[in-house]
Amino acid sequence: MSEVKLVALDMDGTLLNMNEEVSDYTKQVIAQALKKEVHVVLSTGRWLQSCYPYAEALQLPSYLVTCNGGEIWTMEKELVEQHLLNATDVEKMWQLGEEIGVHMWMISTEDVYRGERPEDFQKHQWLKFGCDSYDTDKLDHMVKELSYLKGLELTNSLPTNIEVNPKGVSKASALKKVCQKLGITMNEVMAVGDSLNDIKMIQEAGIGVAMGNAQEAIKNVANYVTDTNNNDGVAKAIERFVLS
Questions:
Q1: Is the per-residue pLDDT at 142 higher than 80?
Q2: How many structural domains comprise the chain?
Q3: pLDDT in the model for residue 1
């Protein structure tokens, strides 16, 4: 097993507890990892504006992987890489969602739209489309219809939602780029997550860690299952694989 040189952390359901906070214990453990010159990278479905404050508070000096790999940023807010959805496809997905009756949200380069239709889809650059419903039949119907649109990558961040990025774009693809920038390999990465949008980075990292609260599919592919997000699962995984 290679020495861990980078820790990639999903945020919701992983780094953050149910109150969307990082516990003091986890903060201390991350600080210890940084002291060992291990890179800690937030790898999230969130857009820059809603993850940057956490990275700043943790004093992470490296990169940020946002929108499920749709963008890579430096902590100086310099854009390293960006992958956009086709605006016509986003409009089609919106229409599908309206027909099927799911709640939708979309992330553009300048805003987040929740349940509101933009006046002109073509005037925006789209990073991610998402929808959710507690009705699994509706979600299944949505997945089936979306599969007819080419060039899309479908994942989720909860069992009740679907997240859409351009084909080939994932947290794993972005982390590979970050590794290239830092001169390390994916074999030297520990990736931690709980949902389908984490599955590729967990599979492709040297050490893939599933949270105790993770979806079963994630636990099945992980090398290790840690404690839950409400019981400092991230800190315990870092202690086990990075600090011990």
A1: yes
A2: 2
A3: 66
Residue 91: inside a domain: yes
Residue ranges making up the domain that contains 232: 6-82+169-243
- What is the Cα–Cα distance from 232 to 207, expressed in whole angstroms? 18
Whether the Cβ atoms of residue 169 and residue 181 lie closer than 8 Å to each other: no
* Beta strands 189-193 and 161-166, pairing class: unpaired
Q: Is the pTM of this model over 0.85?
A: yes
Q: Report d(CA 12, CA 20) in Å as an integer.
A: 7
Q: What percent of the chain has pLDDT over 90?
A: 96
Average pLDDT over residues 212-221: 97
CATH of the domain at 111: 3.30.1240.10
**Residue 10 bears catalytic tag:** yes
Active-site position among 10, 89, 132, 232 = 10
Cα distance between residue 71 and residue 170, in whole Å: 10
CB contact burial 127-165 (16+ within 10 A = b; e otherwise) = bbbbbbbeeeebbebbeeebeeeeebbbbbbeeebbbbb
pLDDT of residue 138: 97
Per-residue model confidence (pLDDT) at position 116: 87
